[in-house]
């Protein structure tokens, strides 16, 4: 397996845990073998390169480091990783993608080269950029990367007319969604879904999984204080005048935002880099109309419903918008179709060649 | 390639041309090589076995015949094919599927065995039964096999709110639909589609293609006499009291049917074995509500529309209905999801073992 692929696998161990930092992985290779592995486990803890160098010990001298993101050149909560690689005597550094953080953005690579290290940028850049979508969104736009996930019947319905949830997708699709919940910083629903379904919004069936932070879009603070989604850390996004005393007493963080754009900026300020939007159709349609959905992951079930609500229910017809980088995969009995509405922010591709 | 697969390919040459007969193909194999090929080209012309035997000549003696459907044992417009195989000295007959026609239904195979031929039933039975779905529907239910084909956006819309057609699917999907039109006896639309779109309902871009018979469901005979779909042979399905003088003068065949069920029985009486339903949503929803759709072929395009009409718009919520034998295929930029609501009529599977 490609060493950079192994570095990406290391980075994935931190997904959903590193905000507002990116998930980063690193492997140190000497004599054609991996001699050190590391990943960034959590903001405030060590960076991937540091753990990998510790793991490699003296074998790092003259070795090649594979890193999923450009090593930092500035002192944040930890000293710059570029310097750690230099000090350890690493001879060559392979970087998947440059850091879009304007504080770094090529300076990490430049610092390594100044100290005589051989640096190669680009392998598996697309996969790395995808893995870092949340960080890249937050650092360049100040708001999380928003993924609208839904399960629809073949005739395009996500629920019956009465808005009661339907088990549209199969068990394999539902299990996959739980692995996503484990990897996203936050999970968002509208108050309609809370009132109709009272969802747990937790990660289930994933070994070592942790729950994403629940975000409830609830302009008039209609969420019952007994709702399962309401727990310490839950963000209640309301209009300016909503009465939220009881919700705050229940541990909710209230984010007052006049517009959806401001709501997402507010979530960004809270360090939320990635948001899994799970419904309902009304919230998703409002975010779509405001051009705030970046990616779509739709499970299409081989089932017909006849009547029901579609995934998007905008009041007026829009021009069709094509997704790009589309992937279609069979997941159990369902078909998962994924694609992007937004290009993930990245540093000029030519610089990454 | 499997000899039965070659026989199915022969049969496919007759698709859309043999009604009310089935498409049937035959290859004669001697010494491990195909020495004769034939298919049923059109009702009233020779059966597949006869053409294949003519093609094989004296090499048929002692050979094996692969036939996609049980050879007939009765004298219809042509003498029984079982007898032709016996007379030609064929030693072994491999049959994909038994004939559901109660006049045959195992008697063709029995007749062959009585005359000492070795008969094996079952290879590629599922593929053969699919290819013969129209014939099997007509012979057992008196009505055509109905396939609802549509192209929807990922958010489940087949057209914008104003019912104007949208180029939802890509060029590869549209080309594939034309190959289907070439293979179906008839193509159906509702009058709403005729009024909004004035479709040609022809087969385009298929070498040797022929046009399916247009069927317009038009209770009150609102189809303009200048509509492109109105040509000699077009069936106008109306209510009992519609005024249709002008349509009949334009060459349309008027089928007066109080219910959709009677309309399909009427089409069956006209010899229509297979019907490709191309919209709109209102006609499809009415047929779906009446349990008259047998198969669905949906192209899902990686595009979002926001607002628009779904593929089915029944007035009331139904229980979800699962499709069976589902296939998902990437077709250009789209995903084609196919599945069945009805089991294709077949003779007891154990008899086909």
TrEMBL record, chains A, B:
Q: Which cofactor does it need?
A: Zn(2+)
Which residues belong to any copy of the CMP/dCMP-type deaminase domain?
1-120
EC number(s)?
3.5.4.26, 1.1.1.193
Q: Which GO terms describe its molecular function?
A: 5-amino-6-(5-phosphoribosylamino)uracil reductase activity; diaminohydroxyphosphoribosylaminopyrimidine deaminase activity; zinc ion binding
Enumerate the UniProt keywords alphabetically. Answer: Hydrolase, Metal-binding, Multifunctional enzyme, NADP, Oxidoreductase, Riboflavin biosynthesis, Zinc
Q: Which residues form the active site?
A: 49
* Family matches, as CDD domains: Riboflavin_deaminase-reductase
Gene Ontology biological-process entries: riboflavin biosynthetic process
Q: Which InterPro entries match?
A: APOBEC/CMP_deaminase_Zn-bd (IPR016192), CMP_dCMP_dom (IPR002125), Cytidine_deaminase-like (IPR016193), DHFR-like_dom_sf (IPR024072), Eubact_RibD (IPR004794), RibDG_C (IPR002734), Riboflavin_Biosynth_HTPR (IPR050765)
Q: Name one Pfam family in it.
A: RibD_C
Residues the entry annotates as binding substrate: 181, 201, 204, 278
Q: Could you give the cofactor binding note from the entry?
A: Binds 1 zinc ion.
Pathway(s) where this gene product acts: Cofactor biosynthesis; riboflavin biosynthesis; 5-amino-6-(D-ribitylamino)uracil from GTP: step 2/4; Cofactor biosynthesis; riboflavin biosynthesis; 5-amino-6-(D-ribitylamino)uracil from GTP: step 3/4
Catalytic reaction(s) noted:
5-amino-6-(5-phospho-D-ribitylamino)uracil + NADP(+) = 5-amino-6-(5-phospho-D-ribosylamino)uracil + NADPH + H(+); 2,5-diamino-6-hydroxy-4-(5-phosphoribosylamino)-pyrimidine + H2O + H(+) = 5-amino-6-(5-phospho-D-ribosylamino)uracil + NH4(+)
Q: Which family does it belong to?
A: In the C-terminal section; belongs to the HTP reductase family. In the N-terminal section; belongs to the cytidine and deoxycytidylate deaminase family.
Q: What does this protein do?
A: Converts 2,5-diamino-6-(ribosylamino)-4(3h)-pyrimidinone 5'-phosphate into 5-amino-6-(ribosylamino)-2,4(1h,3h)-pyrimidinedione 5'-phosphate.
The protein, known as = Riboflavin biosynthesis protein RibD
